Amino acid sequence: MSIQNIRKEVMKTLEKNIDSFVDKFLVPIEKIWQPTDFLPNSQSDNFIEEIKEIQEISKELDDDFWVSLVGDTITEEALPTYESWLLDLDGVTQQPDNGWAKWVRAWTAEENRHGDVLNKYLYLSGRVNMREVEITTQHLISDGFDIGTSTDPYKNFVYTSFQELATYISHINVAKIAKKQGHKALAKMSRIIAGDEMRHHLAYTEFVKEIFKIDPSEMMLAFQHMMKHKIVMPAMHLRESYGEKGSLFDQFSTSAQRAGVYTGFDYVDILRKLNAAWEIDKITDLTAEAEKARDFLMKLPDRMARITERIVIPDTKYNFKWMIPV
Ligand SMILES: [Fe+2]
Ligand SMILES: [Fe+2]
Fold first, then answer.
1. Which of 74, 178, 223, 266 has a Cα at 20 to 30 A from 216?
2. Domain 3-33+45-214+236-263, CATH
3. Ligand nearest to the Cα of 166, by number
4. What start-end ranges are recorded for coiled-coil regions in this protein (predicted)?
């Protein structure tokens, strides 16, 4: 059997548990929070006062913080890219009897609330040029992405395990900074978004864990492949109006590092957490090649930590079109 067909078989085996995955890792729609729960109530007499208060305190947070939040929001808003990518994986089809499609749709439906609430908050803050933010979002969706996984579910689930944790970290750091500055509403919404990301992270790590039980060597090689090529960010093609594809990503990343929202150390930390979650050191029945991959993966976090320590974050200021000067 070809590697691709084995993967399809493994996906079929996992698919039998889709309902329990959905029950365990996702929240019923009527019970989960909605964006409106965290935004000023437009039907209340205090609506305008609440917006004024948000606009006042929004002036106190610096540009690096807002740029990070805008980039995170746009990343969430490019959800059509991620849904269509996941629906194209080996073993996933949009046919009604395909359990994986059910997972992907339910996951997408949860994720959709993230960009929704953040976008509305940014709009109310008065701190950013929303039209430019919208142009970047439209570009990002139009540009699509290539995360180097092809249609391989093993590689993809490594990617999503990683990314869900990366977004958890970003949102939780935004929550901490916002709280410190007295931004209660923003802190609350970021914390609750982070909670969703953590559940999603646990789901995707569980899928990988299950694959490790059935096809350990191939799973190990897929993990190694993803880490050797480094995990690219979903917003890799970020650009602003009239900009070249991808030209804005490094500037955004620099701001996020300076703000302390997402840094190179977070990347290393995620690697360690994935190794631990999948108990990479304890997996048995590996081929010689997969044993080598395991060695590589075990040593990688320390190696990357040493490289990260040497990286100097530039303190040059870039004038983002997204930002309105205070
Ligand atoms: Fe999200
Ligand atoms: Fe997510």
1. 266
2. 1.10.620.20
3. 2
4. none
